[in-house]
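Let us practice reading a record.
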Amino acid sequence: MLSCLVAVLVLVFGVVERPGTERTRGGYRFGMSCAIGAGLLAVWMAFPQDTFAATTDSRWSFEPSPPAVHLWLVACAIVIGCALVLSGSGRADPRPFRWSTLFSGAGALAVVLAGALVAQLVVPWVPHREGGAESAPAPVPAEVSGEGWSWRPPMDTGIDGVREGPHGPIVLLGDGAVALDGTDGTELWSYRRPYDVVTHVWTEDDHVHVRHRPRTEDDTDRNLHQAQFEDDELFETARLNTESGALVDEVSGALRPSVARSTEHSEELVDEILSLPENCVVQRTEDYGHRLAGVVGCVDEEHTESAVASGDPFGFPDSEVEVMVVAVDPQEESELWRTEPFDPGENDRPRLTAAPGDPAVVVENGPDGRTVVLDADTGDEHVALPEDLEASEELIGLVRADSDGTVVAADTGGPDLQTTLHRADASGEITDSAVVEDVYLDPKIGGGRIAVLDDAVVIAEDYGLDGMGEDGQVALLVAPFGETTDRSDEIALPGVAESLSGLTVVPGAVVVSTEDEESQILRAFVP
């Protein structure tokens, strides 16, 4: 508003209808100097401080805004115009009007074009940079020795996940994705929609998908999380090549990824899809991608009413329970597979867990009390566990399971704190072991904080992180196969940490996502 007022004053007092009077009077120069001073004040007041990462006070106040840049550039143009008027040898004469109109239009067009181009370069509406690595991708490290590089996300977004890409990690952001080189952390390509509503960013079939729609006046920070439930027809999904970041296509109305969620009503949902007999009860469910798996227990007629009322078919010691594991697709409302009925033996009730690697359903206390690994797509037994551990009380759980075999954790310390990580082939034969002492690993087994490499197991440890925002410390422990490792071998990450996400193995590095007092940060450990 101030800059527009200055422009009006300049037009009124700096442009007259008759030529003549040379600029020798101090009053005129004084007036134009005041106009320039007011214009400079407008430039200073209109400067969009929070639009630029270098000038904003903190990452919490960073808010890029193309309209704010446009307004600031207009204020700058008015000041420049005042200076040009003052530098002339005489008062500006608008006659003949055809020439003054032409020149005024050219000047206005120049301001508009310059403002649009500069704003687009400084804060583009869709920041998109294609690229790619110049060399072949580095191999996945067999072992790591220390931190090689780190990377922080842009100030106005955060890290939602990390996936393995062709040359390193693909970082899924709240509004797009960035691909990094695993060897040195160089940004290979990036694609963001910072001014749109982005509900989902995911990788599938060697492509990155970004589901978005334009932001409206009704969209506030409080209700943006509800946008994911809106009609698919309102959204477009950009599909990017993971190698170069090139935009392959942008489809309107594309469906969001199908993900099953285990909730308090999941047992009822599975029961309705399967149409189970009256004496069978779905006792526990877990989600595996788009699948929902559950443990079904079928009791005798005498205990049917009590089992259905309690929702627990395993609470009757004098009753024999026939058990099976089932999987359904909640979106399609169809059964995917079910196992043959089995007897869990004298052990505790069956329990479903998961392990990193291939999509697999891990059934603890399964047939004859064994722990078995089922293919999540078919329900067939995927790989075998070591025979002396599959039904042993020493077995803590699975660290990883894929078609090549498994890595299992066993408590081998007796009264002492000692965990042995056994690597076995698909037949269940143990091929290597790593021993970890003085570190409590039980809560991390089956989660994302343990990564398996060819020659070692990497474990992310946190100290003092209670999930309540308290600062703590993060350390990595590298446990080579064939050796014994303890807490003294940990590699402490610099600074304090407020949170810790899982480990991701990518070409060239093992990356871990943490958060410190400044922002989220991705740290990479290299050979």
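A brief commentary: The first strand starts at residue 128 and ends at 129.
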